[in-house]
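Schema walkthrough. Field components (list of strings):
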Amino acid sequence: MSQKLILVLNCGSSSLKGAVLDNNSGEVLLSCLAEKLNLPDAYITFKVNGEKHKVDLSAKPDHTGAVEALMEELKVHGLDSRIGAIGHRVVSGGELYSESILVDDEVIAGIEKCIPLAPLHNPAHLLGLRAAQSIFKGLPNVVVFDTAFHQTIPEHAYKYAIPQEYYEKYGLRRYGAHGTSYRFVADETARFLGKDKKDLRMIIAHLGNGASITAVANGESRDTSMGLTPLEGLVMGTRSGDIDPAVFGFLAENANMTIAQITEMLNKKSGLLGISGLSNDCRTIEEEAAKGHKGAKLALDMFIYRLAKYIGSMAVAAGGLDALVFTGGIGENSDIIRERVIGYLGFLGLNIDQEANLKARFGNAGVITTADSKAVAVVIPTNEELMIAHDTARLSGL
Ligand code: ADP
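Field assembly_structure (string):
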């Protein structure tokens, strides 16, 4: 009898990402990406054995249509009967969920309750969940929340310093994100270093297009840089990160902008893109900075400085530092950013090992500090899909 496989789904409002994984080996047997959902020219792209092909979804351009097409594709490859359970990424579980959970009607109602905290994402997750329930009849569904890992953050770190009534009435507080990645990377770091995660004070920087940083002690999240929404914290691809909230009043008065326009500018037109005026893509920024582009150089300087400054403050949250961990597309690949960030951190006892730093890329884990460093810096590739598959298999009893 062959091992049951896990289908992992990540639904956005106009997209659906899927992957079929072998939970034991981590091998991805099939992946797909549906785009332009709810538009007449919706389509889904499948990748199987390195080959890609596109299927038109115009006859049924919604989440259900995409999951139906996925089921057809699984049948073609004889994979449909091997799926044992489905795991769903959910952006916000608010304060209701501190871990992954098997889906029942109560859980669906819980995800609905959290819609105000993730108004674009949670409704899309529910569409994907309902489509999966109706098309993969009888299979268990599990939800894995981006916020769950951060539910251990203490009150003095998750509250904003504003009147408590906004927390009490509206749940206005810091929730964080990237929790599934942090959980995976914390475990992998401990494994890689041959230590018990409870004995490690870690600062993990998840640096992708969206970027955040988390202090982990005793295996638990103690603080994180994203807040009520992913806008808070580090400089990101298109997000400003931390900014004086008075910019809203200032721009409304001086630039005649609306709240919606300012919010859009801070989320979509800022960060590396806004500073450089060129791109949100870190590779492009590094290339152009090397050629002397002023905006690209400033974008890199600001990204690196903000990150180093946050590492200092996260050392307070973790109660010290044993391991600084880089992950995400930038963290796993940019030796330049890692070297320059560590250049700020000599006072925490970190010294870069140039050669090791150059080697740690393209999915290779590695320690990138010298042996005489008081703490280690390490590169650990993340794998959120595998973490979702692990939770799904465990909770489904597979
Ligand atoms: P997302 O948040 O969309 O999942 P990823 O984790 O895939 O993002 O990271 C994407 C970012 O990683 C992009 O800014 C990209 O330029 C950057 N990146 C990928 N490879 C490199 C590299 N070799 N050097 C610098 N940046 C890189």
